[in-house]
Amino acid sequence: MALFWRVFPWDPDVNEGNLFSPSYIPPATGRGRFDLPAACSPVLYVAESPEYAIAEAIQPWRNRPLRRPHLLRAGRPLALVGVQLEPDESSRLLDLCNPRTLQRHRLKPDRIASRRRRTTQPIAASAWDGGYAGLRWWSSFRGDWHGAVLFMERVRRGLHFGEPEVVSGDSPALQEAAGVLGITLEI
Known about the structure:
The chain is an alpha+beta fold. It has helices at residues 50-58, 87-90, 99-104, 109-112, 117-129, 152-155, 172-181; strands at 2-9, 43-47, 65-67, 72-73, 76-85, 93-95, 134-138, 146-151, 159-161, 165-166, 184-186. The protein has one domain (2-186).
């Protein structure tokens, strides 16, 4: 199984699949870099390391102090959860970190790294049209951090969520993510 990570606002009293549960999948909005049109599939953004998942959640506070209220969303604590994807599904991710894949699909790294949705969303749509279960790419924070976007209509049955852990100032993953982003912890 491939192991990914996600950070989300957690309420331990809600049922699985509901808002604030580990397995809640936000509806398609079209606002994400690699979102698909709503008619195709909602997507789930995940990271290959806990540090990268947390970095994405705290990045608005780059070069500033991070305080306890910054670890809340919608009044709930941020939690880190492992997300396992069965091998059959993970083998169907379009690996945009692989130079051969880029060459075969005639993709250039600057298009993948673009912050313009008009540039990146067609890459996701092409992966969807090609039958892929999602795609994998590198982080703009560190080249050795990688993330994936999972096309939920194709991976839902092969996805398993672990036990969430509240992100706290004692978390080594938070400490590393904050260090990479130039964030001082005042928690």
